Recover the amino acids of this structure.
């Protein structure tokens, strides 16, 4: 319900919403999973996925100056003291990266929902990086670099590896 409203509201209303709620959203994203029960874990995955989608929407709709600058009201609301302008974006990119490179070796619980969670974190990272940076090193370093030695895999987490993909052959 919240995503369509946030998508269609004015940028002023969107900005005001995030000034009020950014601390709670980031706190939820930074919270650790508690796999006490499958139901509790499922709720956590859904909440975090929703928050990543909200943050993706924010970085897709608002200009860099409103998100990645000393004057950013949302960043000031996030860090509340001595805002340098990049704290929210740095925190969010780190959170996204940790989410979509999660080590899934041996995991069996809620695999498809976790894949959707990884996708939400990845698309959020794309939105943050494309809004905040123009240098290729950020795209390469955060979006396209897998580190097998650290068990940091991207494609295995966002693509359904059980599915067979068939692409039509294109000939020019």
């Amino acid at each position: 319900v919240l995503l369509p409203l946030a998508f269609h509201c004015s940028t002023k209303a969107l900005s005001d919403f995030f000034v009020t709620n950014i601390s709670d959203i980031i706190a939820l994203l930074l919270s650790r999973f508690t796999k006490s029960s499958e139901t509790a874990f499922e709720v956590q995955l859904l909440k975090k996925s929703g928050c990543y989608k909200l943050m993706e929407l924010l970085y897709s709709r608002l200009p860099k100056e409103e998100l990645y600058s000393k004057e950013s009201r949302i960043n000031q609301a996030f860090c509340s003291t001595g805002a340098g302008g990049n704290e929210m974006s740095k925190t969010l990119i780190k959170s996204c990266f940790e989410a979509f490179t999660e080590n899934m070796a041996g995991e069996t619980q809620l695999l498809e929902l976790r894949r959707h969670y990884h996708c939400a974190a990845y698309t959020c990272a794309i939105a943050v990086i494309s809004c905040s940076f123009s240098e290729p090193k950020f795209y390469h370093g955060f979006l396209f670099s897998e580190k097998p030695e650290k068990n940091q895999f991207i494609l295995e987490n966002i693509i359904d590896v059980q599915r067979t993909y068939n692409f039509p052959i294109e000939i020019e």
Q: What stands out?
A: The first helix runs from residue 2 to 8.
